[in-house]
């Protein structure tokens, strides 16, 4: 069940990137898809044990590696999302619209 | 001892980046700190030269950061592929940094992002595990997004956002691929995954690994920009500052390509070769047709980057050892001549203040050195002896002997020539010469950079055989068996039909009907939505090819 849910979240994110016209919503879609990948790693890691990964407690601890990896992935994701929103803001200042199709059309007219 | 040097390849550009950033606080020292940052790029080059001996002897150097063993720590690995990749980065990064320094318009923030990008490229080249590769790919990406939008123009910002959306989607698939590998194999270091997969009978026998390899290839494929993932490249490369276009085309797409080569070869992805060969050949042809139709100077060059990458990919797909050598040789040559072309054409664009090649003309008299260097680059890319494009195309011909995809590459050859006759007019004498008033005159450092690159293009052409032999020894640790006769009469005469056909095609393009068709082809640039559809189609192709 959890696997299917994670898959569904991933697909919702991709759908958002693809078919929402609003640039902010596109960035949100990316963020959702990114969260799905993070959930995937963390959920998989959580299946491998029962307690927090502290050595020599004698209990079955979870695999610490997926959590450690995802900590990095979250940081990277935050940076990219922040940068994406800055770009969206700057584009809004230029064109006064958030519609990606409109922005692309007007940017295309500027080329020669 | 020598293995400790490995970490300095990463650390020096990082320190250089910090030095450049310090220039933002210490305003009076900004110039000096930028020079320092540029100088820091020489250290990796020296280290690489020192490491070339052991690597060529077939040794694989390892270094574990902080002394942590492999499953937990970050390991750096230097073998033949990483050496070539890092060396290419050094050469182009140094040239681009010196050129930017000579321009004088770029301050400490620019150098910070440039050096972060270079750090990322070294990281991708020498990393030993998949997750670290992801992190370094994102370091490159964040720096590149900023640099593409550097001028703050609407077109640059739009290009940067489009690239961001596409490449972040690609990177999510890359992470998914890492997950699948971690789930089934339990390790992430490339060499350990490779060993484990061999134990399981190679990626070809395990369906989940097909999916994993497809995810990894698609994630890197967006950075490498072959069809169907190429759509971000023309705009991103066209609207970035000129030195950045040079390093993006010259080094960044090659570094990603080398990472893909390493993953495919190590994980037993030989079943992808057929697909890659056809993708490469179609990329080469389709992109050169688009290039021929462009009227924007830098956009034309950007399409040529995709097209030349098609050559590199197609010959890699041919699969033999000479084919891989040819692929790497052409990557090296393309890095040299494409950064040369972007720097010289970019200087012409800055000088005239125009991007449309029909509005620029007669710059040959105003900037003779740049014109000469531009023509060296143009002759290289079109494969005229004795420049380097000729040498590597001879190797490609040999590597793809009897391959059904070769005719596409041959057609690409003369179309390339036609489009460079078209582009060459910016330096040729023309009627509206008097209108060209100099806006940004190139400085001494810039002239030195382009002259050095032009000399490098000539040298790698004249000594093509020995250089290919060196690359082969780096990759396989053995001497290259057979080489094509580079400078025999037969091979030189083979150029003549291509020249004639190219001139004929150029004639056709400049007719009024050809111009009308060009405008139609230009308008084919797809919107983001279509681009993402392309992306998923490409992913399905990579995943389905095993059956």
**Helix and strand string of chain A, N-terminal first?**
HHHH
Tally the helices of chain A: what do you get? 4
Fraction in beta strands of chain B: under 5%
Measured by residues with Cβ under 8 Å of the partner chain's Cβ, the largest interface is: A-B, 41 and 43 residues
**Which percent range describes the beta-strand content of chain A?**
under 5%
Any idea of the CATH class of chain A? Mainly Alpha
What is the SS-derived class of chain B? mainly alpha
Give the SSE order of chain B as H and E letters: HHHEEHHHHHHHHHHHHHHHHHHHHH
Q: Number of DSSP helices of chain B?
A: 24
Q: Round the Cα radius of gyration of chain A to an integer and report it.
A: 19 Å
CATH architecture level-2 label of chain A: Orthogonal Bundle
> Average pLDDT of chain B, to the nearest integer?
88
- Enumerate the spans of chain B where pLDDT stays under 50 for 5 or more consecutive residues: none
CATH fold description of chain A: Helix Hairpins
Explain what the structure shows.
The complex is a heterodimer of chains A (112) and B (547). With 112 residues, chain A is mainly α. Chain A has one domain: Helix Hairpins. Chain A has helices spanning 2-19, 23-46, 64-95, 100-110. In chain A, helix 1 runs antiparallel to helix 2 (23-46). The longest helix of chain A is centred in the last third of the chain and has 32 residues, at 64-95. The mean pLDDT of chain A is 90. By secondary structure, chain B is mainly alpha-helical. Chain B has a domain at 272-510. In chain B, 74% of the residues lie in helices and 1% in strands. A two-stranded antiparallel sheet of chain B has the order 1-2. The interface between A and B is large, with 41 and 43 residues.
Quick description:
Chain A is mostly helical and about 110 residues long. Chain A has 4 helices and no strands. Chain A has a single domain, classed as Helix Hairpins, CATH 1.10.287.3510.
């Amino acid at each position: 069940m959890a696997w299917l849910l994670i898959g569904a979240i991933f697909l919702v994110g991709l759908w958002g990137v693809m078919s929402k016209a609003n640039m902010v919503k596109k960035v949100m879609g990316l963020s959702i898809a990114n969260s799905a990948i993070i959930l995937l790693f963390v959920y998989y890691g959580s299946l491998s044990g029962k307690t927090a990964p502290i050595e020599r407690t004698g209990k079955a601890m979870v695999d610490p590696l997926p959590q450690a990896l995802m900590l990095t992935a979250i940081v990277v994701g935050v940076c990219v999302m922040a940068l994406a929103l800055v770009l969206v803001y700057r584009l809004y200042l230029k064109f006064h619209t958030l519609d990606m199709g409109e922005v692309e059309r007007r940017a295309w007219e500027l080329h020669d | 001892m020598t293995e400790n040097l490995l970490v300095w390849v990463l650390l020096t550009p990082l320190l250089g980046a910090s030095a450049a950033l310090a220039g933002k606080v210490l305003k009076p020292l900004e110039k000096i700190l930028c020079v320092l940052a540029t100088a820091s790029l020489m250290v990796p080059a020296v280290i690489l030269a020192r490491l070339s001996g052991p690597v060529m002897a077939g040794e694989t150097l390892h270094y574990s950061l902080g002394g942590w063993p492999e499953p937990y720590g970050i390991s750096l690995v230097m073998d033949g592929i990483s050496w070539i990749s890092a060396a290419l980065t050094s050469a182009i990064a140094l040239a681009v940094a010196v050129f930017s320094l000579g321009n004088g318009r770029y301050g400490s923030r620019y150098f910070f992002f440039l050096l972060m990008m270079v750090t990322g490229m070294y990281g991708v080249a020498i990393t030993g595990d998949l997750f670290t590769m992801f992190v370094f790919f994102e370091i490159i990406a964040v720096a590149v997004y900023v640099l593409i939008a550097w001028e703050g123009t609407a077109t640059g910002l739009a290009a940067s956002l489009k690239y961001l959306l596409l490449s972040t989607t690609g990177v999510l698939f890359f992470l998914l691929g890492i997950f699948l590998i971690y789930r089934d194999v339990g390790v992430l270091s490339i060499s350990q995954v490779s060993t484990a997969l061999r134990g399981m009978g190679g990626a070809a026998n395990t369906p989940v690994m097909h999916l994993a390899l497809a995810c990894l290839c698609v994630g890197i494929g967006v950075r490498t920009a072959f069809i169907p993932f190429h759509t971000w490249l023309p705009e991103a490369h066209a609207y970035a500052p000129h030195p950045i276009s040079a390093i993006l085309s010259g080094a960044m797409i090659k570094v990603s390509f080398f990472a893909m080569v390493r993953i495919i070869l190590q994980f037993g992805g030989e079943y992808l070769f057929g697909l890659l060969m056809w993708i490469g050949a179609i990329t080469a042809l389709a992109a050169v047709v688009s290039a021929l139709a462009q009227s924007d100077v830098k956009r034309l060059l950007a399409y040529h980057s995709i097209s030349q990458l098609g050559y590199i990919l197609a010959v890699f797909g041919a699969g033999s050892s000479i084919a891989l050598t040819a692929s790497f040789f052409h990557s090296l040559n393309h890095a040299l001549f494409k950064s040369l072309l972007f720097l010289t054409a970019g200087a012409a664009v800055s000088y005239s203040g125009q991007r449309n090649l029909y509005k620029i003309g007669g710059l040959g008299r105003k900037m003779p050195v740049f014109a000469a260097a531009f023509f060296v680059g143009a002759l290289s890319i079109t494969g005229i002896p004795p420049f380097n494009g000729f040498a590597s195309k001879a190797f490609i011909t040999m590597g793809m002997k009897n391959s059904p995809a070769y005719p596409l590459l041959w057609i690409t050859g003369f179309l390339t020539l036609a489009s460079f006759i078209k582009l060459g007019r910016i330096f040729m004498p023309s009627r509206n010469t008097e209108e060209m008033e100099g806006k940004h005159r190139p400085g001494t450092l810039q002239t030195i950079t382009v002259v050095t690159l032009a000399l490098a293009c000539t040298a790698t052409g004249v000594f093509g055989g020995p250089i290919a032999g060196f690359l082969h020894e780096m990759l396989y640790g053995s001497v290259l068996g057979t080489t094509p006769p580079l400078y025999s009469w037969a091979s030189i005469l083979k150029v003549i039909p291509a020249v004639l056909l190219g001139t004929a095609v150029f004639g056709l393009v400049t007719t009024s009907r050809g111009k009308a068709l060009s405008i139609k082809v230009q308008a084919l640039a797809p919107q983001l939505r279509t681009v993402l559809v392309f992306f998923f189609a490409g992913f399905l192709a990579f995943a389905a090819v095993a059956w």
